[in-house]
Amino acid sequence: MILKLIEEKYITMENYFLDGTKIEADANKYSFVWKKSTEKLEAKLKGKIQEPLQYIHSLN
C-alpha cells in the first residue's frame, strides 16, 4: 500500500516513523497455507485498497 501511495505521489518518505513491533513466528508443520487461499485473499485486499485510494484521489 505504501509503495502504491509513493508511486502515485500521494506521500513522500521525507518524514517517516518506524514502529518496532515484534511478531512471533508460528512455523510448524500445521501452520501451512494453501496457495489458492492466499491468491483469493490477495485479490480481496487489492479490492479493499481501491476504496481508500479513490477517496485520497477525490481529496486532491
Please characterize this protein's 3D structure.
This is Transposase (08). There is one protein chain. The protein has helices at residues 2-7, 35-59. It is mostly helical and 60 residues long. The chain has a domain at 1-10 and 34-60. The longest helix has 25 residues, at 35-59.
What does the average pLDDT come to? 84
For the record, give the distance between the C-alpha atoms at the N and C termini, rounded to a whole number: 18 Å
Instruction: Identify low-pLDDT runs.
Output: none
Q: H/E series, N to C?
A: HH
| Broad structural category | mainly alpha
Largest sheet: none
Give the helix tally: 2
Q: Which range does the strand content fall in?
A: under 5%
DSSP strand count: 0
What gross morphology would you assign?
flat
Radius of gyration, Cα only, in angstroms?
16 Å
Helicity range of the residues?
40-55%
Protein name: Transposase (08)
In a nutshell, what does this entry contain?
It comes from Candidatus Carbonibacillus altaicus. This protein has 60 residues and is mainly alpha-helical. It contains two helices and no strands.
